[in-house]
Amino acid sequence: MTLIKTNGRKPQAPDFNNWLDQLFDVPSSFVLGNPEKRFNGNSPAVNIKENDKEFLLEVAAPGLKKEDFNISFEKNHLIISASKKSETEEKVESHKVKRTEFQYESFERSFLIEEDKVDVDQINAQYQDGILKLVIPKKEEDKRVKQITVS
C-alpha cells in the first residue's frame, strides 16, 4: 500500500474566463455576466449578436411576464433581472385536504458595456414567446478630423 500526501484541495481547472476571452475575442464578463449577482443558481441562456449598428441580446426566460423584468443601465453595466412569485392552491373536498405551494424564482445578469460606445437612451426591450430581446444601438463614431496648428 502506498500513502500519498495531499493538501485536501481539488486540482485547479484552467482559467475558463481567460480561455473564453481568447477563443471568442469577447470579454467573458460580457458573455457570462457577473457571477456574484446571479440568484438561486438560475441563470438564463443569452445569445449576443452584433452588426455595424447595434448589439442584440436574446435572453431565454420562459414563463415570465414583461412586468416581471427590471432592466437598468448603471456604471457601464446593463443589468437584467426578473422575479416571479407564484402561489398554487389546491382543494380536495372529499378529504377536506388543502395544499398550498409557494414558488419564487429570480435571476440577475449583468453585462459590461462601455457607455461611450452605445446609445443608452435608445435601448429597446421586447418580451415575446419566452424570449426577452434587447436592441442596444451603437453610437456613431466621430470621424471628423481636426487639424491642430502649431504656434
From TrEMBL:
SUPFAM superfamilies: HSP20-like chaperones
Pfam families, per the entry: HSP20 (PF00011)
Gene3D superfamilies on file: 2.60.40.790
InterPro entries listed in its UniProt record: A-crystallin/Hsp20_dom (IPR002068), HSP20-like_chaperone (IPR008978), Small_HSP (IPR031107)
UniProt superkingdom: Bacteria
UniProt cross-references to PROSITE patterns, sorted A to Z: SHSP
Residue span, SHSP domain: 37-151
Family: Belongs to the small heat shock protein (HSP20) family.
Name of the featured protein: Heat-shock protein
